[in-house]
Automatic annotation (TrEMBL):
Organism: Salix viminalis (Common osier)
InterPro entries: DYW_dom, E2_motif, E_motif, PPR_At4g14850-like_plant, PPR_rpt, TPR-like_helical_dom_sf
GO biological process: RNA modification
GO molecular function: RNA binding; zinc ion binding
Pfam families attached to this UniProt entry: DYW_deaminase (PF14432), E_motif (PF20431), Eplus_motif (PF20430), PPR (PF01535), PPR_2 (PF13041)
Record's keyword annotation contains Repeat: yes
Record's keyword terms, sorted: Repeat
Residue ranges annotated for the DYW domain, each copy included: 562-654
Protein name from the UniProt record: DYW domain-containing protein
Family statement drawn from the similarity comment of this UniProt entry: Belongs to the PPR family. PCMP-H subfamily.
Amino acid sequence: MVTLSRKFSTATSDSLTYISHKQFSQNPQKSTPFYQIQQQQLEHLKSRIVTTLDGCKNLTQIKQVHARILLSDLEQSCYVLAKLIRTLIKLNFPVDPYPRSIFNRVKYPNPFLYNALIRGYLIEERLNESIELYSLMRKGGAGPLSFTFTALFKACGAKMNMSLGRQIHGQTILVGGFDEDLHVVNSMIDMYIKCGFLEFGRKVFDEMPKRDVISWTELISAYAKTGNMESAGELFDGLPVKDMVAWTVMVSGFAQNAKPREAIMVFEKMQESGVETDEITLLGVISACAQLGAAKYADWIREVAEKSEFGGKHSVVVGSALIDMYSKCGSVGDAYRVFQGMKERNVYSYSSMILGFAMHGRAHDAMKLFDEMVTTEIKPNRVTFIGVLTACSHAGMVEQGWQIFELMEKCYGIKPSADHYTCMVDLLGRAGRLQEAHELVKTMPIEPHGGVWGALLGACRIHKSPDIAAIAANHLFELEPYCIGNYVLLANVYASCGRWSDVSTVRKLMRARGLRKNPAFSWIESEKGMVHEFFSGDMTHPRSGEIKQALEDLLERLEAKGYQPHLSSVPYDVNDEDKRRILMIHSEKLALAFGLISTLPGSEIRIVKNVRICEDCHSVICGASQIMGREIVVRDIMRFHHFHDGICSCGNFW
DNA sequence: CTAGGGTTAG
């Protein structure tokens, strides 16, 4: 054995130490200088080992490779050993003891080796060990690499460990150079954002000598997530080169902040600018279309999705989003067709479909799909159960609901959340079992949130139960004092019982808190895809005269068949004639009348409403579907109503 | 060998 090569004292290069004479003599390339041959041979061996490691699937295989390394001249090679450690960690082996022991035997570990181990500890969320190793690396004279910092920042962000993050920030300056490394600084910004200190991230951003599209996008995304679309938009406008991710952040930002029209507008601009689109961009647009609930947009975005390069058939994510969208646009049939056409399905696909059926009152289909789901590999999650419970609730299936509710924890290990209790309260409340519902709220093991009391209050509205309504409302007035809907609901309950002095007390409370009622409105798509909006009593539509006439004709025909206006739906202390007039001009009735005169006889009418449908409108639309022979679909704030031949899919139960 | 975007419920 001849010692040929230098001992690598600088820890940044690979610590190769020896090469055997035997290996050398087998190589007859006499004209090549000595060290070049050994380099070549070792490089060859290294790359063979790395390839083998990439193919390793289990511990036995890795140990074989390790044995080969130990017998070769690569026994101290940081490059190969780092790869070995990374492979182990990729296969989910804990850092201790095996990968750590490999590291411990290396005399001069280089930063790559340190980094492999640090990353391992980070994955195990052992932040302290990572930091210890980092200090050891510094003490040993090895310089850190930028990805050591990025990994550390990432871990601090995930653990929301701001103080440690700031220390590491200090290190980047101390070590020198890294505070100008884009990878490092960008992950630092991300760390501050994840720790909830957006302004710190912004400060770093403002002081950066050079920034790239990633720095910008991080901040735009952070503003969008806090709902500050103005700041997001300002930054975005100033971004010199907008790439796909930056555009996508704006699209999904608007979608997540309930600004679907803006989301679609940004998407259209994105397409004009010629930037590529991928499925994540589409998710934002699809979600926006779902919020709009307009069939025109639904078909448009499905076409865009199908034309895009990720396959004519939908991917799991896009497919699942489309299912949700079609359900919310009133087309459960289309939603189910997408569901059936998907090659692969996940928990989103099933949950969205179950929720879709539930929203449309197709409880039986929802349950059937749930039964099918549990035979697959896909595990139901908390959202799935919200779908199943909603289905029970909308169909008045109290007993099945209780069964599912118990099954959830027993068989699937999902602890009922406040949202699940909301479903149960809704289920009992709708079925008229208000006392039981109230009892459940009082005895639930977790703190009831606004949703739970809101469900109880909503049930009191249907069953005209002012006493429990007052209890629920008082909780709500504390939990969410500025939520206008609760005051309106309580006032409506009092009004329906004729307790007018209580109604005016609630109205006074509203005024005292500076709250004003949101105007109710409905909208409908005409045949040409135009959207027509109607407010209550709205006579601004160009065809108002015809609309009024059509409505009067309709009501006349209904009265001839025994229809009586539900005067108790009017929350004002006025005479019956005025109540009749108020009911007559409800926005959904105007939209319905416009639908009747503006669409072809026999075609479907779709109406969307921003609040719950009232009882009187519900019965009028039921009658209209029969007399006029029309399918009518109404989406209110809670669910869908499919009216067909005088019957609604909700079974008069909403 | 590292930095940015995502779907269901509420």
